[in-house]
UniProtKB/TrEMBL annotation:
This is Peptidyl-prolyl cis-trans isomerase. Residues 357-376, 414-445, 455-469 have a biased composition (Basic and acidic residues). It catalyses: [protein]-peptidylproline (omega=180) = [protein]-peptidylproline (omega=0). Residues 6-172 form the PPIase cyclophilin-type domain. The keyword Coiled coil applies. Residues 205-236 form a coiled coil. Belongs to the cyclophilin-type PPIase family. PPIL4 subfamily. Pfam families: Pro_isomerase, RRM_1. It comes from Eremomyces bilateralis CBS 781.70. The keyword Protein transport does not apply. GO terms for cellular component: nucleus. It is found in: Nucleus. Its EC number is 5.2.1.8.
């Protein structure tokens, strides 16, 4: 037997003690069923003690009647309150104990108490003060983070939160109790909207952001922080950073405004008096080798690095006053991470270091080994296809199309229409798609042409040969 309370700060699940407090549980279940608690404000917050809710308007509204029990709604105002069960075994020992808020019938006698619709949820442990004043009927089983948010909310002197905390919706997860007569008439078809009287009690809406006065410096720092976080996330997505929250090392100094003649050995000698140096490198141009006038110095100990930062600021080195700061570069960390990742991928099985992943298939490949094609293109086929004796794929079977027999060639169709337009290939070179013929084939063709021309047009030398014969 459970009920889910959807509040403006989160969801709370309450388990009901039906066997120990059946009358309180029936009242609470049926009020939840008719959506009586929707938009009820949470009030009377006492930190590490308790908070109270269940009045649809709240105690700060002039129109509030304090709430009514389910029998008061069904049978009339005379049954607005009821006598709850007080079990000696049910105490407010644990945080999240749910009990009905009660009031004494008379001023002199405090033992006879009645309850209506309001209930209390404890925010602390061992609250013996509430024993005998609150009728325990359930416990919170989920949503303790919501209780902590309510406990830490900003409140005024009366315990009213400055920003509204309300019950938005109630859902019954399990209801073993039969509905009383007449309850069907109070069941809404859909979740009801807040009434004008409830809207009038709103101080600051639960979905409204508080206007916090911040100076320009704080706003600028917040903007820079958000911008840096967004840029780091972009670099992580691009693969330039191992992760967005990476921080630069604390033992590396950045030195700039160096003289172009300053060498690595000079800086290492000057900075080594503060501690052991692991590396000292003046950054140079990759093409010319000239100094870019800044360097990175890595110390073994972060304290030595900090001491060098304070002592070497504006020191004159080779007639240049240098500037020293802590390095903000993470390129070395990224290179180390990238190298380790690539090594792991190369050592793993599969393509790209992923087991079961194969390289993508290609249907045309360039510069195949052993290919005799002049156009440098070849076809890639599955191993299941047969090949001819010359290493080329065999032709596909013939097809019949309307009584006509046509053979299908696997090779790509070539453009057989010659291009007679003048272009840049008129220098004697082959056109695109043409095969470069061998010299022996051209010689054989020219020889045949000469023989034919001699037979048709004999010259003087051939005539003399015939006369001699």
């Amino acid at each position: 037997m459970s009920v889910l309370l959807e509040t403006s700060l989160g969801d709370i699940v309450i388990d009901l003690l039906v066997d120990q407090a059946p009358r309180c549980c029936e009242n609470f279940l049926k009020l939840c069923k008719i959506k009586y608690y929707n938009y009820s404000p949470i009030h009377s917050i006492q930190r590490n003690f308790s908070f109270q809710t269940g009045d649809p308007l709240g105690p700060f509204s002039a129109d509030s009647d304090g709430g009514s029990s389910i029998w008061g709604l069904l049978q009339g105002p005379s049954n607005k309150s009821f006598a709850p069960e007080f079990k000696p075994s049910l105490k407010h020992h644990e945080r999240g104990t749910v009990s009905m808020a009660t009031a004494p019938i008379g001023k002199e006698d405090d033992t006879d108490r009645v309850a209506g619709s309001q209930f209390i949820v404890t925010l602390g442990e061992d609250l013996e003060y509430l024993d005998g004043k609150g009728a325990v009927f359930g416990t919170v089983v989920e949503g303790f983070d919501v209780l902590e948010k309510i406990n830490s909310a900003f409140i005024d002197d009366a315990g009213r939160p400055l920003k509204d905390i309300r019950i938005r919706h109630t859902i019954i997860l399990d209801d073993p109790i039969n509905d009383p007569p007449g309850l069907v008439d109070f069941l809404p078809q859909k979740s009801p909207l807040p009434t004008p009287a409830q809207m009038a009690t709103v101080r600051i809406a639960d979905d409204e952001d508080l206007d916090v006065e911040m100076d320009q410096e704080a706003l600028e720092n917040l903007r820079r922080e958000r911008e840096a976080r967004a840029q780091a996330l972009t670099l992580e997505m691009m693969g330039d950073l191992p992760f967005a929250e990476v921080k630069p090392p604390e033992n590396i100094l950045f030195v700039c405004k160096l003289n172009p003649v300053t060498r690595d050995e000079d800086l290492e000698l000057l900075f080594s008096r503060f501690g052991k140096i692991l590396s000292c490198e003046v950054i140079r141009d990759k093409r010319t080798g000239d100094s870019l006038q800044y360097a990175f110095i890595e110390f073994e100990n972060a304290k030595d690095c900090e001491q060098a930062y304070f002592k070497m600021q504006d020191v004159l080195i080779d007639d240049h006053r240098i500037h020293v700061d802590f390095s903000q570069s993470v390129s070395r960390l990224s290179d180390t991470w990238r190298t380790a990742t690539n090594t792991k991928r190369q050592s793993a099985a599969g393509f790209g270091g992923i087991q079961g992943l194969e390289k993508k298939r290609q249907y045309r490949t360039e510069d195949r080994e052993g290919s005799t094609r002049v156009d440098k293109y070849g076809m890639v086929f599955d191993k299941a296809r047969g090949k001819g004796g010359n290493g080329r794929p065999s032709e596909a079977p013939e097809e019949h199309h309307g009584g006509r027999r046509r053979s299908r060639s696997i090779s790509p169709r070539r453009n057989r229409e010659p291009d007679y337009r003048r272009s840049k290939y008129d220098d004697g070179g082959p056109r695109p798609g043409e095969r470069r013929r061998s010299r022996s084939r051209d010689q054989h063709r020219d020889k045949r042409r000469r023989h034919r021309s001699r037979e048709r047009y004999p010259d003087d030398r051939d005539r003399r040969r015939q006369e001699r014969r």
